[in-house]
User: Fold this.
Amino acid sequence: MLEINGLTKTYGNGVRAMDGVTLSIPKGMFGLLGPNGAGKSTLMRTLATLQYPDSGTIQFGDLDPIKEPKALRATLGYLPQDFGVYPRMSARAMLDHLAVLKGITNGKERKQVVESLLEQTNLKQHANKSVASYSGGMRQRFGIAQALLGDPQLIIVDEPTAGLDPEERNRFHNLLSEIGENVVVILSTHIVEDVADLCPNMAIMNQGKIVAKGAPTDLIKELEGKVYSRTVAKADLPALRTQYNVISERLVMGQVVIRVIADSAPDGFDAATPDLEDVYFATIAEGRQAAAAA
Amino acid sequence: MLSKIAGFEFRFQLLSPASIAIFAIFFLLVFGGVTIDQIQVGGGGSVNINSPNALTVNILIFSVFGAIIPTVFLSSGVLRDFGFKTSELFYSRPVREFDFVLGRFIGGFAITAAVFASVPLAFFVGSLMPWLDPELIGPTVLWWHPYLFAVFGLVNMWVVGTILFTVANLTRSTVVTYSAFVGLLVLYFVGLGLSQAQPTLRETFALIDPFGFNTFNEMTRYWTVFDQNERVVAFEGVLMTNRLMWIGIGFALLVLNVVTFRFRRGGGKVSKKAAAAVAGPTHAISEFDLPRVTPRLDAGSSIAQFFARLSFEVKGVVMNVAFWILLVLGLLNTIPGFFLGNEIYGTANYPVTRIMVQVVEGAFSWLPFVVVIYYASEVMWRERRFGFSYIVDATPTPSWVFISTKFLALGVVITALITVSLVAAALSQLLMGFDQVELGQYAIRGLVGMIIPAALVAALAIFAQVLFNNRWLGMAALLVYQIISIVMGNVGLDHNLYNFGSAPGAPYSDMNGYGHFLGMQLWFYAYWGFWSLLLLTLSYLLWSRGSLTAILRRLAALPRGFAQPGTAMVGLIAIAGMISTGGWIYYNTNILNSYQSSNAARAQAAEYERQYLHLQDEPQPTIVDTAYEVEIYPSERRYTANGHYELENQTGETLDTLWISYGQGTNVLDQTLEGGSLASADEEFYLYEFTMDPPLAPGESRSFNFQVERANPGFRNSGNVTTVNYNGTFFNNGESMAIVGFNGNWRLTDRQQRRREGLDPIDRAFPLEDETHWYENGITNSHYVGFRSEVCTSADQTAIAPGYLEREWTETDDQGRARNCYEYVMDRTILNFYSWLSADYAVAERETDGILYQVFYHPDHAWNVERMLEAGEDSIGYFSEHFSPFQYRQYRILEFPAYATFAQSFPNTIPFSEGIGFIANLSNPADIDYVYYVTAHEAAHQWWAHQVMSANVQGGTMLVETFAQYSALMVMRQAYGEDHMRRFLKFELDSYLSARGSESIEELPLYRVENQPYVHYRKGAVIMYALQDYVGEDVVNRVMQRLIDQRAYSSDPYATTLDFLRILREEAGPEWEGVIHDFFERIVLFDLEASSATATQREDGRWDVTLEIEAHKFEADGAGQETEEDIDYLIDIGVFTENLDDAYEGSDHVLYMEKHRIDENTMRIELIVDEQPLYVGIDPYNKLIDRDSDDNLVRVQIVE
Assistant:
């Protein structure tokens, strides 16, 4: 559905935000995972026609968003990574205004759409309150409401769950999965669970490059039998780091647990069931090693 | 900790783009001002470019505009944390509040000081530049720079800085801080305006002025050129009080900041959020039903989006406190002017709509510009500022919708700002009981004169914001643009076709309405309107929609943008409109009319002088008789004339060549010389040479006939005020009638301009003793001539020329239009200088003692017509009785449009501007009746100029203007009394003393005045009033009589001040020798002060009064350097029961008034008066030239 080919973008300060990004994204939820600064937002903005790539092509159905941004915008829903709001403007008024900008100019239809979205996103009872007074979760729901205006075929949500409490996040995931059935939804995030919970397809981006892509289950499968974990003392960490390919270190009930990748179980390590997080860390760690080697 | 924070603040900002940019801008501005001699700040004339006065004025002016510096560096120190959302981070760190606030302030202030140091630095560097005129460079005294920088620059930065720092700290809002900055400036300019309109408030303003501008003006009010070059204001008196007070206020504010500052307040927004709505469904997983409405994207939806955006943008600016603050500021900026503006001699005008609009225009000369620049950045960056731009930018709304609605929102701000003030103006008219409110004039002049120009700037400002992708750069670009356009105008690049948004001036007149100006201005605005359309089109094509994109990439996308049919069409319309309106303008300004930049005009004048100056001394025949047939076509702004001269050879030699000149722009249709033929013509200089064949023998006469036309086709780039108007034509024979010989009007007189053209400076006048010039006058090349003129005008108008109406008839011209025709004949010879007028007049008249008094006036301006008739009667009566008989049977005043504000006396004919008396409000008897004064002054010229004409040497204007002043004063005193004269003469004295500092060459004693208005009008009035007070009115009038006896109608020779002084000395006698010498032949100033006075009641009920006085006398040289000398003068001592400021004739307030001999610097004077005194004074009526005329009176202390 969405074909991305060889996108590159270098900023004025020399940062390569996209370095030959090539992806093919089918209908449904697509997760784009990557650490902060990986270039996810640049890619999202480029797909949302808010930025031009230095080179490369994008094709969405029959549309070329680089050449015809307006045509893509007509079918786009975009929730940016971080958005503010106008002071003293209610959610209803704001949605109504954005609906006009999206091209829903028939007053009656617009009213219906706005009311329905307010209802679906559970904002109805606060629709007349200023968006500025909303909590983080409500604000994100408002964000998704506006992204859904005008029946978009491509929905781009950039880091939508950052800062949400678990319940809000659940609710948000539900919303996304509902809408992700018939259209392309790209979910950019650095939170592995978001992708694990929602996305049949995904890619991992690091340092401007797509370093892994596929279905989460396939990616996890590749790590089967290669992940081992062990509880260690903090003092031993430096030595272990040089000795093994450590992909993650974390505290579990106050004790340090490290996970490593190895073909067979190293001394004192237990075999662990790989999960998406291991995939993510392993991929990122590879990138780090590659960078260090270079 | 304190030093760390301050140091961080300093380093953080020192090398920031903002500080470098502001430093550079101020440096360049000052440097340009110092080194480009078309721009002179605080210099000019003979004041040195690097004088301490120029340095002070530079520092003062730039500290007012430099108020932006602390706004940026001090308030941003506070606001930055909120802007970058780092406040919580910062405020949670273990920094003491005290250290934090003070540190930020100190760091910010240090950077402010460093940046403002650009001003004295640029001044200093600029004054070293080698191309400056060395005659205008004085010695550089280094300490002046730091001293003035500290006293004015630093203190002003401190004042503004502490105020804005406080506002920023208390409100935490950029908008409010910026509003406070604009508000400070507006309030400041209002105060400055008030202090100029109300001289009585000067001292108060000097004390409280936060920038010290009024303080400086007050301390240097009477500084001469010498003082301005040599002296620097001392840190004492009112300056010290003012500065210390403001430093103190700043400290108090700083303490307030430290005391009230709490980090917690940084979390204010969070606490608001804490109360936010918390909501959500009870179940996390629920059905979701997507609404399915497919958007429509067509022309109809674009229009709907346009209106949605328009309403959104307009609400965005209107629903903001800054907008309302701005409207209030706009009102504050204008309302005082409605009530106080436009006074002449302290007397107000009727608030006619013309004046009210003029006040609004004056008040809004720069404010809309600032507002537009600010709001352009505000609307263009609003979405980004609120973090909402990505959402909006990703919608399918076309870009033109966003840009056009932002532009219109700016239009709403401008329109609201100006409309509110115009409505206030109309209401003020009603409040003042004036009901001729011309709503149409408000609407049209408001729109064309103020709203359209600001809207054009708005388009440019939006374009700059788009182009630079940076809010501050976009704003700075407009400022720099503004400066460049000022400089361009100054260096002669002044065509409106390339100065964005500019159009020729369009003055308004009640008589002539919009005249020909409105249509002309609309052409220019249409032209710039098309430009703006193109700029706005480019703006939406180049706009960084989404992420900011480098300009090159956006430019590269332009062709694709223009490939869209709609955009292509708009672009084509804009370009076609630009070309067609621009072409039409060019056709008018450069083909129908000739366009000359000011530099080209200067070069041409210099060329004329180089080629033809020798003609000045070439013997030429003299005009002895003139007759004209003049046809005025008001609706075409055109006249034609046939002139017939009788030329006589009054030289002792035979003449074979006649030189004829015409004023620039005359169409010479035909010219014939009896017994002669055209030998050469220089059409560039309107100069024609005739060979006289046979040559003209001494005493022989010959006739010269010419036919000329003054057409004003289309319009010009500038100087569209023409002498012929739809209603209100007034021109004199200098404009297009033939001139015999060299046309002296072309000569450059300004010394600097001459130097630049490589011409030697010329004297302003020939030396008084140069007898060769005693046989010519300074006005024309001829002497006294016969005059008659037929003049025809359109059927709705009356045409007038000097002389008496001989016949009146109507004609039909060849196009079938009816014409009113008149023939005026003068029954005695007059100076070869006369005028023609034509307008739709009402006439008031009365006849007294065989003299017909008439006022021809615009029918709406009847207020003071009777007063003018009375003043005419009183004046002619007094002068006929005391000087000589009136030589005419008629005295006519004729109103002309307010494009100029003067009255001018021609024989029995006085054109009088609508702006200086016809609309004066004389209803308050306490006000000076300047209508009466001007009328009397012009009446006096029927004697002084038209009976006694002065020779073309120094002192010439004293005989004409000073004597007219004297004559008017005598008539005024007769009508209004001594106390009124005191108020009037204080104005004159103040004008004289203030103007001395602007002298461009040197001040001369009155009898050698070289056409210096401040001397011959202002000083002359004071001196002549004192003279008659000392030697007696009857003695002075006898001198006048004898002078007229000896020199009336004399060109052989004309009168000189030597004649006057000779007769005066004979009449006054040797006892007044000292006074006459001081008054006329020297520049003498006094400093008289009543230090204190006490009074005690005596046994017999009368009062003993003791007065302590201080008296000094100085002689000044031409540059104004004063030398004290011993005083020995008879000076008035007076005792009064009232303050003379409030006294009127006939209120019996004078207990004692005698001249005392004052011959020591401090004296005690003891008197006995009959009643309890309230005020005592030395020279209480301000008859002498006193450097401080306000300390002559002192309130009496009653001692038991």
About this structure: Chain A touches chain B through 61 residues (CB under 8 Å). The longest helix of chain A spans residues 276-293. The two ends of chain A are 36 Å apart (CA to CA).
